[in-house]
Amino acid sequence: MERHRYSYGDDPSQWGELFLPETAATQGVVVVIHGGYWRSQYGAELGEPLAKDLAAHGMAAWNLEYRRAGNGGGWPQTFSDVLAGIDKLGDISGDHGIGLERVVALGHSAGGHLAVWAAGRSRLAELGAPDADRQLLRRNDDGAVHLTGVVSQSGLLNLAEAERLNLSNGAVSNLLGGSSEKYPKRHKYADPMSAVPLRIPVYAVHGTDDDTVPVSQSDSYAAAAKSAGAPVQLLKVPGDHFALIDPKTAAYRKCRELVQTLLG
């Protein structure tokens, strides 16, 4: 297995690591986006075991780091970093013989939120960037690398509900710099619910014993997306919040199978 680290910006958290299988060049890549309620104490080390496992099963994996709330992230840096990190694949894929016909995101918890949010990037212009944060919209150009599918692992897919429930002691307000009362446009722009329906397939996978992110986060998103005609599937698997990112569990193996399906 080969691994190559690249920066996509000047900040110490603006990097990704590409894990390559020992087999020949692949026609797609998996973007691994870690969780941790968008807080700086959780980093890309959470995604590394997944990226290694994906590469061991013949897939190229891009383990993405980004600025989080507490180390220069939050609004809008976390969001612009995720788009820039995905777009970096356009610069490096040719060096490793990786096609970008299929670019699938595998995101856990807050990373599931960011993955589904990034998949809606073509819809962001319709919403209009709030608070004059136009750097987000500047990435919606022809040179962008667009996701072709997402596997969300216990993702935070309904930010309005997550704020109402005060999940992880105000994590949503912490990410967005204040409450939805103070920044309503910002909250709407950041919420995957606002971009329903997506045109690409989304698998919303959730652990039945998850007490960190309630299953209602996947339930409500999938219900809204389905009713709008989106190709979304909700899957509930045995295990807690972290079973989904443990390569030894059946819950994770199901996620890997879904990624393989999306890569074709």
TrEMBL record:
Top-level division of the source organism's lineage: Bacteria
Gene3D superfamilies per the UniProt record, alphabetical: alpha/beta hydrolase
Coiled coil: none
A Pfam family this chain is assigned to: BD-FAE
BD-FAE-like domain sequence ranges: 18-221
InterPro entries tied to this protein: AB_hydrolase_fold, BD-FAE-like_dom, GDXG_lipolytic_enzyme
Keywords: Hydrolase
Keyword rRNA-binding: no
Membrane-spanning parts: none
The keyword Transport appears for this protein: no
Name this polypeptide is given: Acetyl esterase/lipase
